[in-house]
Amino acid sequence: MGLLNPEFQTLPEMFSSVFNHYRGEDDSKFPFARKINGIYQPISYRAFEEDVHFFEAFLKHNGVEAKDRVAILSENRPGWYLADMAVLNIGAINVPLYPSLPSNQIEYVLNNCSAKAIVVSNMLQLGKILSIWQNLPELEVIVVMNRLEEGIEDVLDLNQAKAMGKKILEETPWFLERTPVEPDDVATIIYTSGTTGLPKGVMLTHRNICENIKSCSSVIRFDDSDCGLSFLPLSHAYERTGGYYLLFSCGATIYLAESIETIALNMTEAQPTIIFTVPRLFDRIKMSILKQISTKSIIKQKIFYWALNTGKKYHREIDNNARVPKLLSIEHAMAEKLVFNKLKRTLGGRLRYFVSGGAALPQKIGEFFQALDISILEGYGLTETAPVTHVNRPEKIKYGMVGRAVNNVEVMIAQDGEILLKGPNIMKGYWNDEEATREVIKNGWFYSGDIGEIDKEGYLKITGRKKHIIVTSGGKNIAPLPIENLISDSPYIDQVIVIGEKRPFLIALIVPNFTTLREFAAAEGIRATTNKELIENKNILPIYEKMLRAVSRQLATHEKVRKFLLIDTPFTIENGQVTPTMKLKRDVITTRYASEIDKLYNTHNMVYNTE
Questions:
Q1: Residues 1-30 pLDDT 10s
Q2: For the chain, which domains are there?
Q3: pTM
């Protein structure tokens, strides 16, 4: 069926068309479901639409008008969707904030966009706002989704706000009559966390987002028999467009995961047909699968690895456009029955596709899941492109590539390799920053900052980030991303960053996968109380030396990583070394470990043999 109304031009039009479609039906179809007392409970279209209008009336009554900025500081929950719909229906602008942000960064964003109102999820987030409220002269309205504790003045909770809105509409039913929202009005300002400098507010219009929804719906067909599992932050454009607007516009149901830790359980409960996620989830799932297999009997282990190899051979034949030999087809059918179908049941049993974005999916990870008959559609895009510009097609997946451009998106590779993009999905610009806008939008083309190449079938491969290209002291230009992907393939690696700007060779800063490393240490009788003690043990270094030697054989001489530093503390949002979208802040990390890096470069006898 696809989109319920392919003609919508604005998000309120899309919301309205979906609610109109389901308003008269029974509650067997519902847009959202969340866990209450350990059981997923549905929220009906009728009840949800009513609540949206109540909250919309409350906001309007309290002075929120078209083009005003309203921030949402919350984890994924029904109140996020409700607040978003109410804000957009008024013609106001939603400014989403990551709940992981500290108060000082929230203060910067709210002041930069002159937010008039904010909706927060709980008392923790409310505390952040109350601590900086005196520094926010434009902020007039604060609503908390959870029940409000007593003794807090000038703040309402969501139930109180909806009750006020209901009373207003009972007294004045015409209160929500409004001027229609225009397609080129700004719908949202999403602040890019940025790996350097202050965040910039990306202005996305209703047209930007609506055209992107339509483009995506032509690649993957959805209807109201589909459902998704939402756990990526709604404050990220990827989850918002794909995991929210796209699914809602097709009548699909969105189940809210309880947390990142409960995804495995929630998949079996929600039985999703589609999951929008990031590559790190696949690392977790792969490790979990291999760990479980290692506990099985020898015969079951052999059956699993036979099935895995059969799957690899089967898909290799298909990828080469060859006819699959009859014997291999029979073996694949057996592997499906003995192994693949059992694995799929652990993912809920109905999964059609994973969609991967937000970061590069290592080719070997994609091929591992493909061999197990689990499809991952990797895509590409940026917040500034609303966000999807490319995605692999279900009928033709190329792992290691991000697919072909979606409808309405033009792509061109500049002489220096930069990916240029054009289409109705390109942002209006950066909020209050014309200079930054002019730097990235030239003659209608958006300059992505990413380096890539396009094959003869139109599939795009990302080879690096323009700003991250390393120029060694020998004048060699090196893209660190492919090298980092090779290193990350090791089960002993959690995070890695390759550096070497204006240096004679490359080195790697490595955060080990301490779970795997401790299992190795226990098996070898290595005792260590802390992570620091563990990485300093003389029996640990050879693991990484051996791994980097193996990686180096796949690289040119100037691309080889000659030295490495093991780090006992992960790069995190909390220590300022990772953005809320999980991108490493290279400058921050290299500054933090500057003395250790200098020591590595100045200690010549530490270079190990990479040949």
A1: 689 999 999 999 999 999 999 987 777 899
A2: 11-273 (3.40.50.980), 277-349+352-466 (3.40.50.12780), 469-606 (3.30.300.30)
A3: 0.87
